[in-house]
Queue: 4 jobs
Job 1
Amino acid sequence: MSIVLKSPEEIREMRTACRLAAEVLDYIAPFVQPGVPTAEIDRLCSDYMTKVQNTVSATLNYAPPGYPPYPASICISLNHQVCHGIPGPKPLKKGDILNIDVTIVTPRGFHGDTSRMFIVGDASILAKRLCQVTYECMWLGIAEVRPGARLGDIGHIIQRHAESNGFSVVREFCGHGIGRGFHEEPQVLHYGRPGTGSELRPGMIFTIEPMINAGKAAISELPDGWTIITRDRSLSAQWEHTILVMESGVEVLSLSAANPPPPKLIGGPLASATNAAIAALPPAPVS
């Protein structure tokens, strides 16, 4: 399957879809508290999608070849879980870190995809540093996006920043193109060599979603067929944005009013444009 460049109409639809996905994360943030089961977070997100947004979850009953149907409306990956964690009855506790990954589908059939890290109460210095460095990795990757750049440029800067901070990059999972399809071309690796991979062209839309481990990069799959964990049980973190390659550079599509701003190491026009875009967005509606 080849990379599909999005039309102006498709880009408008993707802006809406990705903003709606981000607004689910805005909505759920106050509920991420000690004692709240992750299954309750999933229920609240599902209700918000269907009853407030008129969207549906892309993950619920998603079953690519070789996988059982995914049983929840969002993915919640907790502590040493890398990705695709399944919500359940276990309550959150102070010091937990978790990634909440949301993909919605609009009534017109477009997918919006984004994820954020959350810290329950306070956390260890290592946990907070891991979350921050992973956030920086994502934004450094975003800053590499411009026409004529290569996918390897994104992976290289992410890998360099993670490893220079003593962390490791998960290699088995990557970002991806997105639009009418949940997973489209290209695959966006979070490691690699500069100047390699597909050339970026205006109209490309894809996710950048590095998974960074505090320990070694090796992973394992749990018997549920979905949940991925670090093999050494070290902490793992992930952030995700969906981006558009523009003639002038890059646009982050998955922004919302409560989105964290770019980290301090990201400056210049990208940070200014992103902060202005966040400030201009209205708050998400409440249920």
Job 2
Amino acid sequence: MNLEAIIDKSRIRQAFSRQAHVYEENAPMQKAVAQGLISLICLTSQAIHPKALDIGIGTGFASKEFSKRFPNAGVFGCDISYGMLKEADKTGAILTEADAEHLPYKSDAFDLAFSSLAFQWTNLRDSINEAFRVLRPHGRIYFSTFGEKTLRELADSYNSALGLLNTGKAVGTMKFESSQRFKAIMESTGFKDVEVKTDFINDSYSTPEALLRSLKAIGAGNPSREFHPSRSLLHEIFRIYKERYGNEDGVSATFEVVYVWGVKR
């Protein structure tokens, strides 16, 4: 599992559905990552109208970018959030409400699969296995997700606050996989010619609270039902965050974006 806490799918579904109507206006980084992902795609299928699957389509901006580059491709999309699918309906993709870990498609159905910033909300190995299953031989997968240094400042502040308050065992912050782990899972699944590319995005926020509000605005909260930090814990987290990572613009936050692709042989 690529999260330290147990993934509560109903919590994820509700959070993203609730914010779907304002997601795009609050997601400039997600749009930039989707554009970066689509720019990497090499579609080598001999089919006149190749079939592509957008896993975790969200509001659909990755599919829109893909269709601009490959207008002859047939695009399918799935997402666990019905609210997101309502927004993605404008893309023209054939949509299905589905979990990336249990895709409702036949085996060997697609020439290409892509996914932008969705796999971090899933069991990574299960999602990659499913993508492998639905791809035809020589089909390709491209996905972006967050790497292990993402929100390292928040994790450090949280863990330090736990220690100072002596609160004992508590549900941790989200824990992301390393680049090496992504490649290992891809290769153990059966993908060949696996490539991994990493970019770092350093954003500034006026306060740590503003950072959390920006995450909440797109539905990206902690996916564990057991994560309920107390007011005193939050106060200490914010104090430490400002002390260690403050600057003239407020506070900094790191996002490690990992792009991964490979071929089904």
Job 3
Amino acid sequence: MEHENNTINLNPRHHTKRKQIKKIVKFLGEIILDAVVIIAMVVFIRSYLVAPFQVHGTSMCNTLNYTDGVCRTGYGEYLIISRLGYIVNSPERGDIVVFRPPGTDTFGKLESLFKTLLHMDGQEFFIKRVIGLPGETIDLKNGKVYVTNSTHPDGIKLDEPYLSAANQGNTLPLIPGKTKFVVPEGRYLVFGDNRQVSTDARSCFRSSMISGCRTDADAYIGLDRIEGRAWLVLFPLNKIGTLARPSYGL
């Protein structure tokens, strides 16, 4: 004969409470897991794919921060900068890049992200255009830029169609006598498009807020300082579009 086991719950309230606690723990666990996944995705995207950036200042006029015939001094376009390109390839001449100038600290990708998210960064980013590539010599002559490399050992003038009429022929040295830039391997030479006012390699990035180069080598930017290539304008709406790399025909 089979005997039936009868279980009597002497404390039904306690049993119900345990089930509720399990549900709450499961719910909280799912929230934490979702949060971890979202943070991991943000870290990956911001570190290796794309990141937002807002243009500030006049150094890239008339290409950026130029509206209704006026070069703006404050904040301008919202951009998306591409990080992936410089993981796969190297910067090219004409790229507009966002970077940390000499005289400021550099951080690892994860540390930099969390400092930005927590508004603890306190560092300044510059946006300029790549003019000189590793191993090249860049000369400033009569307000124009000349490139000497293996393809053009005698030097060739760089045609820069993105420069405004006021800046054409006005790429002048900002340090007396500093007209030649020999770009080291693994480094890049960058100038702003608004050559008359840009704080760039010609002044060794010295400004009222940035101490600039500690040595002459600091005038050239390495990949460790480059955050990415300015790729897409998101705002204002009338400027939405990609920032194309110019063709120099060199």
Job 4
Amino acid sequence: MVPDTQSVHVAAGISAAMTGHDPAKRVPGRKRGLAVDVLGLVIAVVVLAANTHDNAAGILLLDQVAEHTGGTVRKVLVDRGFKNQVVAHGADLGIDVEIVQRTPQVKGFVPQPKRWRVEQTYGILILHRRLVRDDEYHPSSSASRAYWAMTHVMTRRLTGANAPTWRETQTVSA
């Protein structure tokens, strides 16, 4: 399993009590946390204020994963944003949490082995219009949007059918 977080902007009508400001990414809004399996399928989603540390999101994701999978998850790969609190909480749940380190001599973005699955999932889900910006008032509604989008992705993978996108030209019958 691979968890990660993403900060997204919120709509203008969302209360400031339900949002925050992520200083690292300079994003006012909410933080969406995903836990995905090795195929890139979503296991758990949490939505928090953007100023929440990754540790809090990681702990909530581990709790949801332990609850939903019934203890079948044994290993979790996290990035350096998650600290020792997540590792200790994972040990309490019987899950081995490994912090994947970057190679220090390499500059810029380099995909880490198996960690790129969660980044790929974020890229696929962001193609769904309702996930570009958080328009939902309640965080639970926002989490359900991620599940809906993942259901669409899974359906497309199972059927092999692709719906036409706005980029494809529409044929007009006369």
